[in-house]
Amino acid sequence: MPDRKYTAPALEKGLDILDLLASHGQAMTLSQISVALGKSVGEIFRMIHVLEFKGFIETVPGGEGYALTNRLFRLGMARAPVTTLLEAALPLMRELAARVEQSCHLAQASREQIVVVARIENPGYYGYSVRTGHRRDIVQATSGMVLYAFQPPPVQARWREVIFDGVPEAEQAAFLAHAERVAQQGYWRAESDLAPNVIDISSPIVADGTAVAALTMPYLYKRGVRSVDETIVEVKATAAAISREIQGVT
User: Fold this and answer.
1) Considering only CA atoms, which of 100, 92, 124, 111 is closest in space to residue 215?
2) Nearest of 137, 111, 142, 162 to residue 219 by alpha carbon
3) Per-residue pLDDT tens over the stretch 88-100
4) To which H or E segment does residue 50 belong?
């Protein structure tokens, strides 16, 4: 982190509010934000209204507090590296979804969480998918496991300082053991704890030896589709193809 030469208290206050709402994952009232940040309501009142006016936060229906809008997400998606990744990934993801009749999505790391940056719906009559913009803690997500497993050791060490905050030691040990397996086999599969009869299958998209994203498929059991093992092969192959595309390798 660069040395701190200057301060901008008002800007920092606004960024603290955005960070808090992003990590909290649900709407918060003015008083809740005040308590969480250790500031008086008067100190944050004007900043809340500025952030709302600029479109970064919004009042949720029913007046139950404030929540982030998608504006920050849209700004992040406009960055050239993300655009290049999506340009390479989306056509191959569409082909994958059509072959195996399952939805798939692309996730990247955002501090201690993963965020879904793109998805392709199952082209069949029904399926299960994860919405774009969905966030989840890295230690709880199949995508997060894959992203961590394919980072260089110094990066993994920095991540652990953030993602293990408040996580019991037993869960930390299990996560690290699973990450070693992921690094060896090139993918991870796990029963979804969000939806019944769904197995999450994830494989890394790699550039210069580091995972820049995870291609993940929430595999839904249904008649007439490929087996889990066959689908794992397809997901790994597609992730490898996207990796070659973004590195300019044919």
Assistant:
1) 92
2) 142
3) 899 999 999 999 9
4) helix 41-53
